[in-house]
Design brief:
This protein is 35% helix and 19% strand. Helix 3 crosses helix 4 (119-130), helix 4 packs across helix 7 (195-201) and helix 7 (195-201) packs parallel to helix 8. It contains 9 helices and 10 strands. It has a single domain (5-282), classed as Rossmann fold, CATH 3.40.50. 48% of the residues are buried. Strands 1-2-4-3-5-6-9-10 form an 8-stranded mixed sheet, sandwiched between helices. The longest helix has 21 residues, at 262-282.
Amino acid sequence: MNTTSVSAWTIPGSDGHPIYGNTHLPKEEPKGQLICCHGFKGYKDYGFFPILCGQAAEQGLAAHRFNFSHSGMTNRLDTFEKPELFEKDRWGRQIEDLAAVVKHLQASNLPSVLFGHSRGGVTSTLYTGRHAKDIPAGLITAAAPDYACNLDDFVRDQLRMEGRLLSPSGRTGQDLYVGLDWLEEIERDPALYKPALAAEQIQCPMLILHGDQDETVPTDCARNLHQAASRQSKLEIIQGANHVFNCPNPFLTEAGLVQLPEQARQMIQHSIGFAIACCEAAR
């Protein structure tokens, strides 16, 4: 029996561009809410995100997933419908978007836990570090870097010279570009975009999830974030998990049954359990 419902919403984001979102609601009054942020070239329907939000709702949380306004993604899943926005994306825009989403959802007066995968984990950490005394009730990062930029000097110079850096999508085959604004924003104030420094300011409980087989972001990044926020953080290294916790995109099911990889199941189980505990403590 399906005890949850899913609704769609749209709000203005950075520069007035739309943020497309979906909310999963439990049948009963929610005990709190989980706000999920996707990563680089990700989107709200990517891989495990609908499963995470669906299972969170089944366990009593309102769960929200959304596309950052400059992700290039809309509600069309087969393409980056607005690649020109992708080129204009930067950390400040993502933090602005997350603030807009949080403000939009604050009307519910529910305690909130942020979840960020990969680059979304950096955005969530930077945001929470800047709003340490306000919200959220908890923060979860999954496969998140401990850096805002890992380009070497040669590639940085190339970006400065050409004004943009090719970063094609393996999923859609489109040519996407990282714009120079992204690098210049970081270089204007590097300390402002250091996740470890932000983690030191975080006052809420923090769960740091990472796979020991992550081929994209080194596992040491999780350990560094944990060390920076050690007073209130918990570190979980999931054995055999890659960058997406072994969950394919798109996530396909057989006969309508969800068959999650064990690593994704563990990640989701840790995340929902932590979120529920944080929300209950904050009520």
